[in-house]
Isoaspartyl peptidase
Amino acid sequence: MRSLLCAGVLCASALLTATAMAAEPLLLIHGGAGVAPGDLDAAGEARARAALQRALLAGHAQLLAGKSAVDAVTAAVTVLEDDPSFNAGRGAVFTHDGRNELDASIMDGRSGQAGAVAGLQTVKNPITLARAVMEKSPHVMMVGQGAEAFAAEQGIEQVDPAWFRTEHRWQQLQRALAEEAQQQAHADLETARYFGTVGAVARDRQGSLAAATSTGGMTNKRYGRVGDSPIIGAGTWADGRCAISGTGWGEFYIRTVAAHSICARMTYLGESPAQAGQAVINDQIPALGGDGGAIILSADGAAAAPFNTPGMYRGWIGADGVPHVAVFAGEQLPLPGQ
Ligand code: ASP
């Protein structure tokens, strides 16, 4: 009947809308590249896997409720920030001076809007503040005390810096400092080992994409160092075609504009997420001396989770509502579209 009542362009647009409404919700997350089999005891590994599952279910619940991809990545990243297993929010790595300085960013692929924060010391969930920068300010990036003043203005939860401290990360800093003292070097390769950034990419029922990333950066960082995670295009990217969140040695992700490069390859070269991920994460970044991984989702629902380290906390959830997670390199994690 309806087809008799509409014609031409109107019918086509009604059909397109119906198709877009029918997109299958998808969510991919990571909890950082760089984890190696010897790094975790059985209890630590079980805690991390359980947290990944909780994050997937929290984000997927948003998508099932008809909420946006932005809501889904915010929910998933918030769970991971609150879990001390990961280098984001509580459990973040320490700076050279023994502080936790947090960075995060988020991008809405539908609107092209983005928000980012860096050098936070009191904001409990940096991703919430990055989202507020995107939605409640005319800016894209805020840092340090200014960003914290904006958090206070927006009523975003702030905590005593001790909230972020874990003994595990403190010991990592002590080891890094001892190694540094021995080597008399300002930045040694050991420092780069402690990854654990978190991120999420999602597609909602409308077919829109979003990406989010949150991190404590790298152990023993100093001089106000900021990595790729809060840099739009480097650690995070989303548009109408692709959503990417990276994790790894941030300086290399900035220099290769990694997240945007992956999306550009998919858009202009017609590469799949797996092909574009291979080119940037497994070829380009290691050729420069960097390492890490990424999660990649395309608007048509194909996904990839490349990495060039011994492991990467990762997982996804789709139509069956079952969270699939993996940690180490040898584990199979069949992804949508692969
Ligand atoms: N990319 C982060 C940074 O360089 C670190 C990580 O992914 O673990 O700050």
